[in-house]
Amino acid sequence: MSLFTAVEMAPRDPILGLNEQFASDTNPNKVNLGVGVYFDDNGKLPLLQCVQTAEKALMAQPTARGYLPIDGIAAYDNAVKALVFGADSEPVTSGRVATIQAIGGTGGLKVGADFLKKVSPDAKVLISDPSWENHRAIFQNAGFQVDSYAYYDAAKRGVNFEGMLASLNAAAAGTIVVLHACCHNPTGYDLTAEQWDQVIAVVKAKNLTAFLDMAYQGFGEGIAEDGAVIGKFVAAGLDILVSTSFSKSFSLYGERVGALSVVAKDAEEAKRVLSQLKIAIRTNYSNPPIHGGAVVTAVLTNPELRALWEKELGEMRVRIKAMRQKLVDGLKAAGVQQDMSFITTQVGMFSYSGLSKDQMVRLRSEFGVYGTDTGRMCVAALNSKNIDYVCQAIAKVI
Ligand code: PMP
User: Fold this and answer.
1) Which residue, 22, 133, 238, 333, shows the most beta carbons closer than 10 Å to its own?
2) Is residue 13 annotated as part of the catalytic site, yes or no?
3) Which of 110, 213, 226, 309 is catalytic?
């Protein structure tokens, strides 16, 4: 008997589990479309030029590594505010946004969840059906009851917008609604600008709390285009939370760079909010690490590096779109009868392919093509070398 005798084995993380299976697969043609990571056309994880240049400059002036303030690098927090809301936007200039540097987008969500649990302990949380796996777990572990709102319409291959509005309309006042600001994970289907307006109207009328998760800004239509939804919520006078991730947009996955921004009523309220966010940080991990935040600050605040980042991010976005088109064309050429053009209406890293669990299992076991059992495939991992093979494989299981 030990203290841990009764500890149960937790289920494996479905995506990381796939990675392990992929690593031990001996098929020489294997392709990993499971994990949400962008690879370049050579199948390599990119190290962006803007990041390399910023790192060289940082290395040229070695600095001692004291603790950062609890809320991170001040210049970083300001750069995030400028990126997410606009440097000259009213909430930023009036000082009513509280922003903290977070450990990735996940850290931003967790700090936000802990904060909200103190502010509205009895609120329920709604996440999209389906959503990124970790949304439910993060909010449940912060003590919330988590339900879902309708989102994906498999038959229509798109958003079940009527269902979504109905779910939101039925929610109790104060309910926290986690929304994907752009590039919905896992489906790839986003709301139109008009649909966002309708969602905002319901959030306002029903007094719901919107928590916008922005993990892919710049991967959809562009940095400003993807971020526009935030401005819409602000213009509607709503107090929102926004989590930011730079994992994908800077290809800095392992540096864990993200943020949380909370829009308050006025500057005085934002100060009080910030003080509570700091408590959440302090009791979780005390303060954030330096390197990733310093790199992103250097890039975002230097006009040349900023332009280079926008160019490199644009190239990633364009390459993903090209792969979507190649996938549609390749599937047709491989003999797939059904219309697969929905793949090009989806945005971001993922495609909900509509393939069944059985088909996904066959793709894996017979062809070494790895996606999730839900049919999600990472189109950002397709390239000019593996696309034909993937199309042939999909054609054989459809
Ligand atoms: N939100 C969504 C929707 C995501 O897809 C991800 C990353 N897969 C995150 C948040 C977390 O981002 P990070 O890796 O920066 O913690």
Assistant:
1) 22
2) no
3) 213
Mean pLDDT of 16-41: 94
Distance of alpha carbon 398 from alpha carbon 331, whole angstroms? 10
Q: 165 CA to middle of ligand 1, Å?
A: 25
Q: What span, in angstroms and rounded, lies between the C-alpha atoms of 280 and 118?
A: 10
Which among 140, 114, 101 is positioned nearest to 260, based on CA atoms? 101
Does the C-beta of 36 come closer than 6 Å to ligand 1? yes
With contact defined as beta carbons under 8 Å apart, do 218 and 50 qualify? no
Q: What is the ipTM of this complex?
A: 0.99
| Fold of the CATH domain 14-47+306-397 | Aspartate Aminotransferase, domain 1 (3.90.1150)
Nearest residue by C-alpha to atom 7 in ligand 1: 215
DSSP string, 144-206: --EEEEE-EETTTTEE-HHHHHHHHHHSPTT-EEEEESSS-TTT-----HHHHHHHHHHHHHT
pLDDT at residue 11 above 90?
A: no
Between CA 329 and CA 64 the distance in angstroms is 54
Beta strand pairing status for 125-129 and 146-150?
parallel
Q: Evaluate: CB of 359 within 6 angstroms of ligand 1.
A: no
Q: pLDDT confidence of 14, banded at 50, 70, 90? A: confident
Mean pLDDT along residues 64-81: 98
Strand partners, 256: none
Pair 153, 144: CB distance under 8 Å: no
Which residue shows structure tokens 């392919």? 353
pLDDT tens across 273-299, in order? 999 999 999 999 999 999 999 999 999
Q: What is the chain's percent helix, strand, coil content, to nearest 5?
A: 50, 15, 40
Fold of 67-301: Aspartate Aminotransferase; domain 2 (3.40.640)
Our answer on whether the CB atom of 105 is closer than 6 Å to any ligand 1 atom is: yes
Question: How many CB atoms are closer than 10 A to CB 87?
Answer: 11
Delimit the domains of the chain by residue range. Answer: 14-47+306-397, 67-301
The catalytic position among 77, 81, 117, 132 is 132
Tokens encoding 228? 């526009």
CA 128 / ligand 1 centre spacing (Å): 15
pLDDT tens digits, 321-351: 999 999 999 999 999 999 999 999 999 999 9
Give the DSSP H or E segment for 306: helix 303-333
The count of other CB atoms within 10 Å of the CB of residue 98 is 26
